[in-house]
Amino acid sequence: MLEIKGCCIPAIAPQWVSLRILVSTQFKDKSYEDLWAILLTKAPYKEHPLDVLLLVEILLLVFSISAAQCERPISAQNKIKNDSRSWLGCQALKELMIIDLTGGPFSHKL
Predict the structure, then answer these.
(1) What radius of gyration do the chain's Cα atoms show?
(2) I need a surface site. Which of 14, 26, 70, 110 has the fewest CB within 10 A?
(3) Contact 72, 100 (CB under 8 A)
C-alpha cells in the first residue's frame, strides 16, 4: 500500500532518524497531538512530505495516541482492590474489573 501512494520504503529509516533529530531540537516542548498536527498540516513539512510522515499518518489513524484505554483498567483495579478488599484473589478481581469496565453483568457463573 505504501508503494501505491508513492512511498519509498528504503527512505523511511533515514528519514525517521532525521525526523527524530528535528523533533528533539525544535519541537521538544510540544505534545504528541501538537507535534503531529504541525508536521502533517503546516508548511514547510506538508509541502515536502517525507515518506516517514505518510507512515506516521497511517499509524495515527490506526492507533490511539491516548493512554486512557490503558489507564482505565488500572483505575478500576485501584478502585476495587483497596485496603479493605486486599484479600481478593486474582479471579475475583478480574471478574469485578470486567463488570466495572463493561458496565454489564458478568456472563460466567461465579
Answers:
(1) 22
(2) 110
(3) no
Cβ atoms of 106 and 91 closer than 8 Å: no
Annotated domain spans of the chain: 9-62, 68-102
Q: For residue 57, give Cα distances in angstroms to 25, 46, 98, 106, 110.
A: 21, 12, 33, 38, 45
Instruction: Tell me if the pTM is above 0.85.
Output: no
Residue type, 26: Q
| Distance in angstroms (rounded) separating the CA atoms of residues 54 and 2 | 8
Whether 9 and 52 have beta carbons less than 8 Å apart is answered as no
| Other residues' Cβ atoms within 10 Å of the Cβ of residue 53 | 19
pLDDT in tens, 58-108: 877 777 666 667 778 888 888 888 777 878 888 888 888 888 888 765 555
